[in-house]
Amino acid sequence: MIKCSISDVKQYEGQEVLIKGWLYNKRSSGKIQFLQLRDGSGFIQAIVEKSRVSPELFELCEHLTQESSINVVGRVRSDKRAPSGYEMDVIDVVVNQLTEDYPIALKEHGVEFLMDNRHLWIRTERQSAILRIRHEIIKSAMEFLNNHGFIKADAPIITPATCEGTTDLFEIDYFGESAYLSQTGQLYAEACAMALGKVYTLGPAFRAEKSKTRRHLIEFWMLEPEVAYLEHEGNLELQEKLVSYIVESVLKNRILELKAIGRDISALEEIKIPFERMSYDDAIKTLKNNNFDIEWGDDFGSPEETFLANLYKKPLFITEYPKHCKAFYMQPNPNRPEVVLCDDLLAPEGYGEIIGGSQRIHDYDLMVQRLEEENLPMDIYKWYLDLRKYGSVPHSGFGLGIERTVAWICGLDHIRETIPFPRMLYRVTP
Ligand code: 4AD
Ligand code: MG
Question: Which residues form the Aminoacyl-transfer RNA synthetases class-II family profile domain (predicted)?
Fold first, then answer.
């Protein structure tokens, strides 16, 4: 007997296979039962025809309940109407566990109820499709970087200092001393770039932001490439190549999942390099011309980002923000020191910022000055200053927010569906 996963049934047309999975749903029309099976790799309809199976097997199938774990033996048959193109005719079923009183019926439920049952909610077709697409995004991003000579160099989660501002830090007791959960792996990625040239970190980031929005998680994952001898312009090119590769891979390898969640595929097909670009100065002009109450020097909120991004079908880089809007480590434009060589990449369709990146200050004295201006403790950054002391070079990098990217590529209304177990303001369970 061939044991196969649902995603592989196309290789076994006409053959008998064994699928180990769960009953997702069931319909019956008296003489025929339609079992919808899932096994983690996909979904398939299995047909039980009264005239073709034993009375015992037919009866057993009648008593199967949603989410019972079962082994199903059946013959694979192509069927144009099936989303995957295949169905199977059931030959035998073995029940592993008959589920009773499954709490999540396949109908509309309130969000709080679903969030309380997130551990079960992820079994649904829609949620599991999103998580498969999330996997494809992470896999393809790493594949792109690995193929371009990047070394994965992981950053610590427990850190002694802040990087992205002091207001949203999670403090922990580190054997009697204060330490913090990492907001970003960047500072460590910079050190690794000086050792290894091209590196990336991929890990969780923590921000105790008291914002309850569709775009914010308290714990999220960030992919952070960092490259020695790379300047601002090259940094933008790296970002657009990476993001277009990710979208291309999802379209190529997860089209069934995109269809299952009803994503507008044509919008994703627009995502080709080069991406759109606009300076912060021009963004302010555009916003003012469109009746936004905003002045040069103000940061953008999500209404501004959404408006700007909606001008285009492709992602939009906003470049060179005022220095005071951004983190201490960003390199000023040498011709205009009031702005920094940075970018936010805004996804189209109103998804807002998915990347924040910049060229980093590589001059020792300037870095000391910026740390002082921000009142950051010099002793804790001594090692970071060493990078500016011993063979310092221009370097650049960025952080791609995994969940924001998943929300955009999947076309989701809310970031809570982009990660198996979201951590949000007022929610740490399950
Ligand atoms: O723009 P941010 O804060 O940049 C950094 O942390 C840099 N140190 C990265 C670097 O240059 N290596 O965050 C980067 C991205 C954002 O564009 C967004 O996609 C995501 O991380 N992000 C969040 N995602 C979900 N919830 C939050 N609270 C997020 N905060 C940032
Ligand atoms: Mg940012």
Answer: 131-420
